[in-house]
Each structure stands twice: as structure tokens, then as C-alpha cells.
Amino acid sequence: MTAFRIAALVAATFATGLIAGLFFSYVNSVMPALNRTDDRTMIDVMQKINVVIINPAFMIGFMGTVAFSLLAAALHLGKDHRTTLIWIAVALVLNVIAFAVTSGLNVPLNDQLAGAGDPAAIVDLAQVRADFESAWVRWNTVRAILHTLAFLVLIGALFVAGMQHARNTASATGAAVDSAQGRFVAQPAPQQSQVPGQFSAQQVHGQYPGQFGAPGHRWT
Prior knowledge:
This protein is mainly alpha-helical. Helix content is about 75%, strand content about 0%. The longest helix is centred in the last third of the chain and has 62 residues, at about 125-185.
């Protein structure tokens, strides 16, 4: 169960990191570069990007930001994992908000751009671009920041989970050692059998009257 729990947390962190990096690349390079192109080029490139990006790798990562975070949170329910759960819950909220920004704001803008049709046939390219570009860039920056924050929080959750696992392992090991020591102390000392004609250790070490170290008889 512990391995499955950690695997879910790692998957949530990995998916969130991938999507945060993807959206950051738009902020840092793709959109600034397209901003320097003419209207037709910008519209044509973005229409193509919005088509090719819908692929299994992207969808698993994008949906996984929420799905894996939710799974990790569910697996960390309970008082023993409460601290880790708090971190995961914060990341989950951030990922859900970012998911909502993409679904409710960026995707409709993508659909609007696709609905404009072939750039070669668009009459007012500048207006189509103006209706799309500034709003899309703004909301992409917002979702990139949200996913990045979620990624950092999930890294914190992994650290906390690792520390908690180490403490639990140390406690379990210490309890096992204490239990073993208790069993050892509780065992009675083996009794030596007395065979006729043999001396016991107590007798050998001067426990007969008159021997060195043994009490003598009093004659009355």
C-alpha cells in the first residue's frame, strides 16, 4: 500500500511538472515569437498547434494533473498521513483551478480561432488575431503559474511523505528491538541440574564451611 501511495504522488508530481513546463514554454518562447510574425502566420501556426497538441501524451498529462492528485489525496486519507494530505490538497486545488482556466477560457478561444477558418480566406485577419492573442496569452500565463505552484507544492508533499515514512520505519524498528530485548530479559536463567557426586558452581567457589570465602561453623 505504501508503494502504491507514493507512486500516485509521484505520478501527480510528474504530470503537473510536464504541463507546467509546457505552458511555461508558451509564455517564454512560443507566444513571444509568434507576436513578432504577421497576422496570417500567427493565426495559421496557432490553428495547427491547437490541432496537433490533442494527442494521448498531452491528454494523459493534462488530465493527470487533477486525476493523479485526486488519487494521491484519497490514498493519504487518515491521521497517519494528515500532514502530507494537506500539501496534496493544496496542490489539487491549484491544479483544479488551472484545469478550469484551460477548459473555460483557453479552449473556447482555441475553438473561436479554429472557427475563423482558413487564414487565406479570412477577411479581417487583424481583428481575428486581436480577439484571440492577448486574452489567450493572459490566461495561459495564469494557468502556467498555477500549475507551477502546484508542482512545487507536490515536491513538498513528496519530501514530507518521505520524512514521515522514515520516522515510521524508525519507530517500527525501535519497537521491534525493544520487544526483542524485553523477551530476552524476561527469560529465566537456566537452572543447573545437580547430579549426585558432582559439585555445583556454588560449592566450588567456597560455599562449604571451612573453605576460603565461606562462613565457618560456630561450635557451641
